[in-house]
Write a structure and sequence with these properties.
By secondary structure, the chain is of the alpha+beta class. Helix content is 20%, strand content 22%.
Amino acid sequence: MVWINFTQANSATHRVNACGGLSLMEAAVSHGIEGVEAACGGSRSCGTCHVYIDDAWLAVVGAPGNDENDLLAESGVQRPNSRLSCQISVCEALAEMKVIVPSPSA
């Protein structure tokens, strides 16, 4: 189990315990993190699991692949630290990672 910190647009932070091997999206959904809709269920086709990764963790999670980057670019709110949470696997290296959930209007 790995602790992940999700900060929402209203600055509320939720520290959740996630099972290794799950995606970051699955961890967020299972803990009711608002703003991570996951409409496509993790098939990398909708972008509703878009999050911003805290800069300190970017090297750990790596850069998005081409397909992921294209979907993020279509969102209109992509930043250098944007990722689809369905594409990040929870592992020990992510312990205490900070994730920012964009505001619903973003």
